Amino acid sequence: MTVSIERRVEVPHPRELFLGGHWTKPLSAHTIPVVSPIDGSVLCELPEVSRDDAARAIAAARAVAESGSWSVLSPADRANAVAKYLDELEAMLPQINDAWVNEVGVPAQVAVAFGGAMSLAGRDSIRLARELPFTEVRETAGGRVVVTREPLGPVLAILTYNGPTTEIGLSVIPALLVGNPVVIKLPPENRMVGHFLAEAAARAGLPEGLLSVVTAETEVSKYLVAHPDIAAVHFTGGTEIGGEVAATTAGRLACSTLELGGKSAAIVLDDADLDKTAPLLMAMTTFQGQICNALTRVLVSRTRYDEVVARLTTEFGRLKVGDPRDEETNFGPLPSERVRARAEGYIERAVAAGATVAFGGRRPAEFPRGRYLEPTLLTNVANSMEVAQNEIFGPVFCVIAYDDIEDAIRIANDSRFGLAGAVFTEDMDAAQAIAARVHVGTFWINATAPCLTAPYGGMKDSGHGRVGGPEGFFDLTEIKQIVVGP
Questions:
Q1: Torsion on CA atoms 364, 365, 367, 372, rounded to nearest 10
Q2: Are residues 362 and 396 in the same domain?
Q3: CA atoms within 13 Å, Cβ hemisphere of 414
Q4: I need a labelling partner for 48 at 20 to 30 A (CA). Which of 35, 128, 251, 351 fits?
């Protein structure tokens, strides 16, 4: 497959905001430069979203919810309208990927793969909207009861810079399909992407007020979360901010779905075939380690520890660090200096605590203007070290030794996170037994990719609620019973 990413991105409506289903002038004249993490150049300047602009988005969503103009449509009619939006998103994926690669540094082939994930998840939700019953009639001893699924109201969908397209398929499209108006809130790193997501909605002709797209800093984001007209918040991001979102929404008894961080462990059993396992483990380096379910802790028995470290070091050396717009690159820059400095701090403190840098750990000299950091493999790591306990969201990966299978399971569960985990082995009975004991929302056996058409989410500090499948599809609805008397 050939991937072509443009060096120059023409952003649609660069002086406007997409509020209430149409492009409009911002209330503030202030603009914010979008700086490339690849070479530090200014890509463009886009409008700042003010609190008053955010209020306009919420007012439009509230008007749609109160009028019932969207929720009164049949599930099939909503599915037809949302399918047009997904059609436009798919048609614009080349431009969306151009923007995403240039402003965040995601490798081109990763961007293309995530676009495919958006399509898969979105199409499955459209199928569910047409097939699942929103109304069920039950005959009971007291008479007939009609059980209905109804929309919550305005939904705030807070997406992350590391997967905006996939999140559209997993959270925004289902929220629309079940009858909710949606305000999409993107992080500052996705300013250009946001304009393309909005333009797709404009071209699809979604109803007035149904969808708004805002890119906001902390102050406006907090305003959106705290607004009393927001009925539910779907948040994807870090655990600390997710906790703040949960506390804010709980204060007014609003719903929240939280897809939070992880520190996932891969257990490599002694019978694992390294020729199969090592390439799978390298999925942890996808998007420079900025994947919430990345297997950033590799647990290996002391018997095979040196062998696995040597093989992973070889695999790390094969990574092509470079310009993410180039098709051959599979490891690009980090989106901001803050993210790079945070990762470097973890490396420095880990070494001071006794860890060894087996590979990487430095800024590549050949990219002085970009925000690059080499993929970094740490050995001699104790699970109690902060580098093994905290989500870094960067290119820092640990290899941890275990004594036996019981010790491996203990280490895997010795984390406040519970997003994902994996085991690599030829023994399926052992694999199933381990899967039952590791406390995570997704567990892989000789695999590393989640199923987007099944419920996905985390346990413990990795969040609550699910996206994907029938369970996630109905997550942003209320259940009502209508009792019909004799």
A1: 30
A2: yes
A3: 17
A4: 251
How far apart CA 179 and CA 64 sit, in angstroms, is 10
Do 308 and 268 form a contact (C-beta atoms < 8 A)?
A: yes
Dump pLDDT digits (tens) for 45-71: 999 999 999 999 999 999 999 999 999
Mean pLDDT, rounded, for 185-194: 97
Residue tagged 């991937």 (tokens)? 3
The reply to whether 252 and 105 lie within a common domain is yes
Which residues belong to the active site? 259
Percent with pLDDT over 90 in the chain = 97
Query: Strands of 135-140's sheet, edge to edge?
Result: 135-140, 143-151, 477-484
Q: Quick check: helix, strand or coil at residue 445? A: strand
With H, G, I as helix, E, B as strand and everything else as coil, classify residue 317: helix
Tens of pLDDT, residue by residue over 214-265, are 999 999 999 999 999 999 999 999 999 999 999 999 999 999 999 999 999 9
Quick: pLDDT tens for 119-171: 999 999 999 999 999 999 999 988 899 999 999 999 999 999 999 999 999 99
Q: Which two tokens stand for residue 323?
A: 């310009």
Same domain? For 199 and 221 the reply is yes
Report yes or no on 7 lying in a domain: no
More confident residue, 306 or 486: 306
Whether 21 and 101 map to the same domain: the answer is yes
Average pLDDT over residues 317-331: 96
Q: 419 vs 17, 294, 312, 436, 463, CA distance in Å?
A: 35, 9, 23, 14, 8
Please give the Cα distance from 101 to 196 (Å, whole number). Answer: 13
What average pLDDT does the segment 322-348 reach? Answer: 97
Number of domains in the chain: 2
